[in-house]
Write a structure and sequence with these properties.
Structural class: alpha+beta
Oligomer: single chain
Strand order of the largest sheet: 3-11-14-13-12-15
Helix content: 25-40%
Number of helices: 4
Shape: rod-shaped
Largest sheet: 6 strands, antiparallel, barrel
CATH class of the largest domain: Mainly Beta
Strand content: 35-45%
Distance between the termini: 30 Å
Number of strands: 21
Radius of gyration: 44 Å
CATH architecture of the largest domain: Beta Barrel
CATH topology of the largest domain: conserved putative lor/sdh protein from methanococcus maripaludis s2 fold
Length: 358
């Protein structure tokens, strides 16, 4: 090889290097991040009301008495056996005294009749009294014994009325409603309070037939409260039938104790049903063009690189990351900043790499 040939080759090589450097400087600078393979939970989104799992109706057992005192308000937490209200016992106390007197009188008469029957029994065998007389004495003792039993039963009723003049909480919980008014005279079956037993709430999520097929008792549930805190629970049961009009069923979800949710709220929640494989990319890298989602990647082409756009199907989108369900492989060099100004095949370079000098 002659000296002239070597010189010509060197000049061509220097020229090519200079052109490559100029092309690199012309390439658009972009920032890159790698697409990450990940697994995400499959979530079934549901909505429905929050209700008391078991609400108890509390009323007075003794009608016709006036309310003398009400000791609780809506929202008060009560314990089992706590006095919620009291009734005017003037009438029941009088009935109790009357019943006690009737029992005392019946006891005296019954004792006397029993004693007479015992003496007549001893004489009946000797012929001192007629058999008919003996039968009459025994019958009188039996009648007075029955009257004593009746008086004792009446006394027990009077005692129950006095004891039931105090309206007690049948179980621990929180008062959810109050209709008791001091001074009002109670009617049979009248409700005075409602109690959420143990303050236990449940979420009755409305589900379609397709959603119900994915659910089962024991699955974890999470609900976002109004203050963005998370309330957790588990599916207790699924309704055995669907509403014939709405075609919706009910998933009964027992909630953990929480002050965030209250009975009567209508909330949304999520049930985790298995997992799925996804590719995670920065949310800023996902572009919407003509109603479709695209992600641009940096593809090496010889000494340079170019932008390549991928039509993708996206899943859940958050502020930082977006799920790509199809159309992009994990490990791809995703263009984040600058992707919106590029088109297919645009020359690009990683902004972390300084361009070569002329």
């Amino acid at each position: 090889m002659t000296q002239a040939t070597l010189l010509t080759g060197l000049l061509l090589a220097l020229g090519a290097s200079s052109l490559a450097a100029q092309d690199l400087k012309k390439a658009a600078p972009v920032t890159l991040e790698s697409a990450i393979a990940a697994t995400r939970p499959n979530l079934v989104t549901l909505a429905g009301p929050v209700v008391a799992q078991e609400e108890m109706s509390i009323g007075a057992r003794v009608p016709g008495l006036a309310l003398e005192e009400v000791r609780v308000q809506v929202g008060d937490v009560v314990t089992r056996g706590e006095v919620l209200a009291t009734l005017d016992t003037e009438l029941t106390q009088a009935e109790l005294l009357q019943a006690q007197g009737a029992v005392a009188a019946a006891q005296a008469l019954a004792a006397q009749a029993a004693s007479e029957a015992a003496r007549a029994g001893k004489l009946a065998g000797t012929g001192a009294i007629a058999e008919q007389t003996y039968d009459q004495v025994r019958a009188k003792a039996a009648v007075l014994g029955a009257e004593l039993t009746e008086a004792q039963a009446a006394l027990k009723v009077a005692q129950l009325k006095v004891s039931q003049a105090k309206i007690l909480a049948p179980d621990a919980g929180v008062i959810s409603a109050r209709s008791a008014v001091v001074g009002s005279v109670l009617n049979p079956g009248q409700e005075l309070f409602r109690l959420i037993r143990h303050n236990q709430l449940e979420w009755r999520a409305e589900v379609t037939e397709a959603q119900a097929m994915k659910l089962a008792p024991g699955q974890p549930v999470r609900i976002e409260g109004a203050d963005h805190s998370m309330v957790h629970g588990r599916i207790r049961a699924l309704a055995p039938s669907f509403d014939p009009v709405t075609r919706m069923g009910i998933a009964y979800v027992t909630l953990d104790s929480s002050s965030v949710l209250h009975a009567g709220l209508y909330v949304q929640g999520e049930v985790q049903e298995g997992e799925r494989s996804v590719v995670l990319v920065p949310s800023a890298s996902v572009l919407l063009r003509e109603g479709h989602s695209y992600v641009a990647t940096l593809e090496r082409e010889g000494a340079g690189a170019a932008a390549k756009f991928h039509l993708v199907t996206i899943g859940s989108r958050e502020a930082a990351q977006t799920e790509v369900l199809s159309g992009l492989a994990a490990g791809s060099h995703v263009i984040v900043a600058g992707a919106g100004f590029l088109s297919e095949g645009s020359p690009v370079r990683d902004s972390a790499m300084a361009p070569a000098e002329k």
